[in-house]
Design goal:
2 domains; 3 helices; about 120 residues; about 40% helix; alpha+beta; 4-stranded antiparallel sheet
Length: about 120
Amino acid sequence: MEYKGYIGNVEFDDKAGIFHGDVINLRDVVTFQGETVEQLRKAFQDSIDDYLDFCSERGETPEKPYSGKFMVRVEPELHKAVAVCAKLSHKSLNAWIHDTLETSVKKENLQVNSEDPAAHR
C-alpha cells in the first residue's frame, strides 16, 4: 500500500481475523489495522494523515520517505571492481550503481518511479 509517498506493509492475523500493518519507510512507528481491505486502506491513510498532523502540531518536519541519497560501505576490492565496471560501461560510478540497482529491483517485480534518469548521472 502506498499513500503520500509512505509505504505500508500488511499481514493477516488469522487468529484475530484482522489485517494489520506498519509503515516501513519511516523510523517512527506508525501502525494500522482493519477487518476488511477497505477498513485497512482507510486506517493506513488515517495513520499517515495523523502522523503528518502530529508533526505539524509539534512544529517538526515530517520524515521524508526517501531522500534519494544513501551511503554504502563495501570492501575496497568490490569498490575497485564496481568502478572498473562503470568505466567499461562509459558511465559514472553513480550512474552505473543506479542502473544496476534499478535492474535488480525490476527483476523482483517492484515498481520504480524514476523521475529523470539523467539527474542520477
